[in-house]
Each structure stands twice: as C-alpha cells, then as structure tokens.
Amino acid sequence: MSSSVDFSKGLPSHPEKATLEGKNKFLGFWVFLGGETIMFATFFGTFLGLREGTAGGPTAEELFSLPLVFIMTMLLLTSSLTSVLAMFSMKKNNHKSMLVLMIVTVLLGAAFLGFEIYEFVEYVHHGLGYTTSAFASSFYTLVGLHGAHVLFGLCWITTLIIRYSRSGITLTNAPKFYVASLYWHFIDVIWVFIFTVVYLLGIGGA
Amino acid sequence: MSTAAATKDKSVLWDWLTTVDHKKLAILYLVAGGLFFIKAGLMAVFMRIQLMTAENDFLTGQTFNELITMHGTIMLFLAATPLIFAFMNFVIPLQIGARDVAFPFVNALGFWIFFFGGLLLSVSWFFGGGPDAGWTAYVPLSSGEYADLGLDFYVLGLQVSGIGTLVSGINFIVTIINMRAPGMTMMRMPLFCWTGLVISILIVFAFTPLAAGLALLMLDRLFGGQFFIPDMGGNAVLWQHIFWIFGHPEVYILVLPAFGIISEVVPAFSRKRLFGYTAMVFATLVIAFLGFMVWVHHMFTVGLGPITNSVFAIATMGIAVPTGIKIFNWLFTMWGGKITFNTAMLCASSFVPTFVLGGVTGVMLAMTPVDYLYHDTYFVVAHFHYIIIGGIVLGLLAGLYYWYPKMFGHKLNEKLGMLMFWLFYIGFHMTFFIQHILGLIGMPRRVYTYLEGQGMETMNLISSIGSFVMGAGILVLLINVVYSAFKAERITVNDPWDARTLEWATPTPIPEYNFAQTPQVRSLDPLFYEKMHGDGTIKPAEPMEDIHMPNGSILPFIIGLGLFTWGFGMVMINMENPIIPPAVVIGVGFVLTFGSMFIRSIKEDHGYHIPVEQVKKIEKEVS
C-alpha cells in the first residue's frame, strides 16, 4: 500500500484518485451522497403525501411563479456547469482557471440563494407561514433543506478557494476540490427534482 | 512531518480521548455499549419486578412507560449497535489485512458523536423524566400535545447518535472495498466482513430516513410544523411509514453481524470450513434486499388494505428462505466436525435453535389475518426477544469469548463462562417462552399492570424469575471480566484457538500498525491454508518499510461535544424557564461543531511515519 506517485511526467491525469487517500475520499463521498439521496427522498415523499393538505391556507397554484423559478434553475444549472469546467481545468493542472471557475460557481450559487430567500419572504407575505398548513411545513422543509445544502456548499467551496489560493494543485487538495464539486452537482440534481415535483406539479395541478 | 516520537508523552486519558486507532476505538465502543446494555437491562429487571404480581404498585404507570421506551431505545441504538461496531472495528481491518480503517479520523468521530448522542438521550432523566411514547414514538402520542420534554431528548439524542452511526457505516464500506490486502478478493473475505459490508450499506440507506423522520418530529414539536397534525392537513400514519422504513432494516443491521460472528465461531470450533460459503454470502445479500420491502408488516392493523398487506406478508415470509439457508449451513458446518464446546461455541451453537424459534413466530406474525390477534400482545414481545436476545446477544457473547484474547491479551475464564451461559440460556427461555402463551391468552404489551384472576399471575411470575436468572448470568459475566483480568494466564501466542482467519496471524498484543508487512492472501481462510499448505505463517506482500500512521486528534471529541450542546440547546426551546437563552447554547454548539470541521478542513495533517528500524524492534519484542 505504498503511496508513492510518479511525478516525472507532472501531475497524474486523475489527481483526485492518484493516492489511496484520494480513492477513499472519492468512494466515501459517493456513498455519503447515496445516503443523502435517501434522506431527500424521504422529504420528497413527505411533500408528495402532504401537498394537498393546505388546511384553507394558500395553495401551490396561487403562490408559485414560473419566471422566478426559471431564473433560479438557470443560475444553479450554470453553476454546476462551471464546476465541471473547473474540474477539467484541475485535470489539466491549470490552477488559475480552476480557481476562477470555482469563484464563478460560488457567485452563481450565492445569487440562487438570494433569490430563494426573496421567494420565501414573498410567500410569507402572501400568508404562507411555516405553521400555516402541512403543505407549508413540508414545502419549507424540503426546499429549505436544499437551500441549507447550498449555503453549506458555498461556505465549503469558499474555504477551499481561500485555503488553496496559492498552493497550486496537489495530490492533497485535488480530492478536496473534486468531492466539493461532486457535492455541488448533487445539489443541482436535487434542485431538478424540486423544480419538477414541487413547482411544475404545483402549477400544473397534477 | 513528525516522527514516531510524537506519539509518546501522552497521558492515558488524553491518549484515549484523541485516539484514532481502530483497536482502541473498538474497546471504547465495547465499554460504552456494555454500560448502556447494563443500564437498559436493569430497566428490564425493574419492569419484570413490576409485573411479577397482579396489580403491583412497584412502579407507577408513567415510570413504566418511560422504562419501556428507554429500554427499547437504548438496547437498539446505544447497546446493540455499538457492541456490533466494537467487533467490526476491531476485527474487520485485521481480517482483510489492513493497517487501519479507510478514515481513522471519521472512525473516532463516529464513536464520539454516538456517545454524546446517547448521553443527550440519557440526561432526560434529570429534566422531568425520560421519553414515554415507546421506542417507536408513534404520533400523536409523541406529539407536543401528549409527550413532555423527554421526547425532545429522544428526538435530538437519536438524531445526534444516528449521525455517528451513519459516518461509521460509510467508513466501513470504504474500508472493506478499498483497503483489502493483495489476494483478499471479495469472495475470500470472511463472512463477518461480508455481513459488516452489507449492514454498513443498510445503515446508509436506513438511518437516513430515520434522520429525516426525526427531523420532521422535531420540527413539529419545537417549531410548530404540521406534518403529523390531521387538522392542519398532516398525516399521522406518515410517521409510522418513515419509522418502519428505517425500523425493519435496523433489525437486519443488528442481526446480520451476529450471523457473521456465528459464521466465524462455528467453523473455528468445528474444525471445518464454513459449509456453503457462497450461499451464505448470497443469502446475506438477499436478506438485506428483502429487508427493505417488508416494513408494512409492522402496520398490518393500520388498515392499508388487503392488497398492500398481502404483498408485504409474502415478502416477509420470503425472508425465511435465505435465513433457512443460513441455518442449514451452520448445521452442516457442525455436522461431522470435531466440535469443541467451550463458551464461545456453546453460545454460537445454541443460537441456532433459539433463532429458529424466533423465526417461526416471525412467519406466524407475517400471516396478516392472524396478526390481528397477535398484534400488540406479549406474543410479539416474545418473538422479537427471541430474535434479539436469542440471535443478537448470543452472537455477541460468542464473539466476546472468541475475540477476547486478541483484544485484551487473555482469555475469559471458562468455568465462569459456562456458568454464565447456562444461567443466561435457561433464564432467557424461562422469561420469554412463556410470554408467547401470555400473548396468546391476550395480555397486551406496554401495559404496566394486569388484573387478578385472569390466569396471568403464575406465568408472569415465572417470566420474572427467568429475567432474574438471566440478570445473574450477566453478573457472572462481569465477575468473569474482572476475575480474568487479574487471574487469567497472559496469551503470548498469535493464535490461541488454532483458528482460520487473518486476525489470528497478528501478534498478541497487536502493534498499533497491525501488520508489519501487508499480508499476501492465497485462499479463503488464509491462516488455515498456510497451516495446511505452507509453514503456518502468512507470506508478506511487500518489503519491510517505514509505516505511515495517522495522527490522533481531539477534534472528534469536540465535534461530539458541540453536537451535544446544540441538541441540548434545541431541547431548551421547549423548557419552561431556561436560565440561559436557548439560542446562545445552540450557537455555542454550532461554533464548536462547525469550527472543528473548519479547522480539520484547512489544516493538512499528513500523519507520521514509524521508521523501519523501530518496526523491526517492535516485531522482535512481540514475537
């Protein structure tokens, strides 16, 4: 189990999986995301079971507006794209371009989060408080948990950018950036499901 | 990079608080799980004293409710799970020929989070009483309307300890997949590693729904969520579904490692290889798969309709098939073997008939129409205690006696061991066999007393006496641990049982790096293979080199403490007049937890190397 890596030809083509530690992180994080998927599935199930339970409060059709959600979706999808491009830069050992793309990812994510906060404030003004109905509770819990994941991801990626702003890409930090970008994709995929299950079904009234 | 000198000059306490060594963490798990086991066991004894005579007033109904809740919750989450993790932590890296688990830091993190979660649940006694809604915490009984502060401790304590269990599960999966020694293919892994892998996968997919469900209940109780309030559009049955989607796989999370232990102990003391190894692996996978599609059998009387009930009834009966395969394989392993009946083997072999009894009543309960009769009676109590004690506890006891010499450097006393076994085994059947009949004549579970003249007095008395005998058995075990620590002969050989698998190829006591050279595995039962076809020693797969080791860290302890503080602050929201504002306590917990994670993230810790000369010196000392 020697951890020696041949550097004679520069950084290996998959720096995130070149060491045993990197391989472990890579697999461990995938398994963690598997667990997260099931946790979100439970919240989705709860939402689907309770979304008709508006108890006389505002309904999904009255509240949701597609233009806002469309902008949010585009922001998050684009941020996912820039994080993929950052990983391509990493594999090409282009530290500067990776950092720039990661910064763009963070900015897009922050914009998404801003819109989400604006959205929640709007809904509260329209009379949908957290305790209004089972629909309200399950909506805020599911979408809010996603928002909390976005916030955590922003803090995490920002920390990595600042910590490794000058170090270049190494076999230690490559797995860290890689799993952070995996996490970011996961958040994006969850949003795609939220967009479909919460907003499209809510407006379409299926 | 520091050298080996960095490990010295630590006080004993600091060493144990900061350790990331899987062998030390195993002992921490064993001690913590053992203490919780004794605590919950005493609760059971108190309940049996209460039920010894009709209309007894030893306990009030409220205290009885708190005891049934805490007994079940502690036994499943804080006793059985950590005891299993103790053996998995100790044995799995050794059995696959690894120096440690994949993430030693996360391993320590898992232990401390579990420990502080358990502590959070336990401090409920000092704040107005424990949770009282049963370990299943069904709404509306567990809602803010009916349940007090104890249930907030339940929700947050389990939430925290569940995080610990989850990260440990992820760690074991990665360890088993990535850290195997050369030649240790998946189909050469000992069955204990296989069951360890499978239950870790179950943990990842079952503890996450529990985390979600507990979050929903917490939001309902603390922040006025409406998930389970029918008037506000909520649904009370939703909790039952989420709970049992977790709850049924949890049974397999606990029992499969016990199957694994039996599959190690039975071949070792029958002096034969495990019969039908491939079938055993396959059966384990099938049980795990089916375990996720039977949860409704806990809810047959809810009224989900005949189609739903039938589908889940058939799936439940289907689990009997792979389990039956396992039972026959253990019997065929013993068949024609040269059996040594020591304590470990007695526990392992008596597991088989006991577990079959539990399985038979399981199939009886799976028949939906008659389940309406059995539901919520002592028949169910008897059934799951046959699975949990007859299956899991006997498996754990077998594992304890089997691996004790490797863990502590001496065997447990055999005479006291035999005494423990017979007391425990007779006491167990006395306590629980009769409860089948009590259930069939209609005694409901979870009720703190019963009336005279209903024909239940004698049977309850017998059951209570049985529980005292069982308690005496555990007392003998504790005496044995202390007695053997002082009196037993030290083990100096690698392999005191003349066993078959790789953990017995390490020296006793095991150096912190486990294997000076990573072993080369040539077969299933690698040590036995080398005894038959080689010179009895495992061949190394690499030259003697400097050994890379991880540094210890106090951060896991602080993260656990932070989560405890956070959870306690959350409970304070529901307290009448907290002295400190809850937000402050929650904030402190938050800062401790995320601050430690932040430090861990920005500080690169590459560990240290043990130089090859020192490895050679240590190897000379232990051999």
UniProtKB/TrEMBL annotation, chain A:
Q: According to its UniProt record, what is one Pfam family this protein matches?
A: COX3
**Ranges for the Heme-copper oxidase subunit III family profile domain?**
27-203
Topology within the bilayer: Multi-pass membrane protein
Which top-rank group of organisms is this from?
Bacteria
The record's annotation in InterPro entries points to: Cyt_c/ubiquinol_Oxase_su3, Cyt_c_oxidase-like_su3, Cyt_c_oxidase_su3-like_sf, Cyt_c_oxidase_su3_a-hlx, Ubiquinol_oxase_su3_dom
Sorted alphabetically, the Gene Ontology cellular component annotations on this record are: plasma membrane
Q: Keyword set for this entry? A: Cell membrane, Membrane, Transmembrane, Transmembrane helix
Q: Where are the transmembrane segments?
A: 27-48, 68-87, 99-118, 138-162, 182-203
Q: Which residues form the signal peptide?
A: none
List, in alphabetical order, the GO biological process terms annotated in this UniProt record. aerobic electron transport chain
Major location, coarse class? membrane
Q: Which GO terms describe its molecular function?
A: cytochrome-c oxidase activity
Q: Where in the cell is it found?
A: Cell membrane
Entry's family note: Belongs to the cytochrome c oxidase subunit 3 family.
- PANTHER family linked: CYTOCHROME C OXIDASE SUBUNIT 3, CYTOCHROME C OXIDASE SUBUNIT III
Q: What is this protein called?
A: Cytochrome c oxidase subunit 3
From TrEMBL, chain B:
Question: What is the protein name for this chain?
Answer: Cytochrome c oxidase subunit 1
| First-listed, main subcellular location of the protein, grouped into a coarse class | membrane
Q: Which reaction does it catalyse?
A: 4 Fe(II)-[cytochrome c] + O2 + 8 H(+)(in) = 4 Fe(III)-[cytochrome c] + 2 H2O + 4 H(+)(out)
Name where it's found.
Cell membrane
Query: Which species is the source of this protein?
Result: Alteribacillus persepolensis
List the membrane topology term(s): Multi-pass membrane protein
Its EC number(s)? 7.1.1.9
Q: In which pathway does it act?
A: Energy metabolism; oxidative phosphorylation
UniProt keyword annotations, A-Z: Cell membrane, Copper, Electron transport, Heme, Iron, Membrane, Metal-binding, Respiratory chain, Translocase, Transmembrane, Transmembrane helix, Transport
Q: Which residues form the Cytochrome oxidase subunit I profile domain?
A: 8-522
The portions of this protein that span the membrane are 26-47, 67-92, 104-127, 153-179, 191-218, 238-262, 274-298, 310-332, 344-366, 378-404, 416-441, 461-483, 554-573, 579-599
Q: Which InterPro entries match?
A: Cyt_c_oxase-like_su1_dom, Cyt_c_oxase-like_su1_sf, Cyt_C_Oxase_1, Cyt_c_Oxase_su1_BS, Cyt_c_oxidase_su1_bac
| Gene3D superfamilies reported for this sequence | 1.10.287.70, Cytochrome c oxidase-like, subunit I domain
Q: Which GO terms describe its cellular component?
A: plasma membrane
Task: Say which family it is in.
Answer: Belongs to the heme-copper respiratory oxidase family.
A Gene Ontology annotation in the biological process aspect, one of them, is: respiratory electron transport chain
Name a GO molecular-function annotation.
cytochrome-c oxidase activity
Q: Any idea what job this protein has?
A: Cytochrome c oxidase is the component of the respiratory chain that catalyzes the reduction of oxygen to water. Subunits 1-3 form the functional core of the enzyme complex. CO I is the catalytic subunit of the enzyme. Electrons originating in cytochrome c are transferred via the copper A center of subunit 2 and heme A of subunit 1 to the bimetallic center formed by heme A3 and copper B.
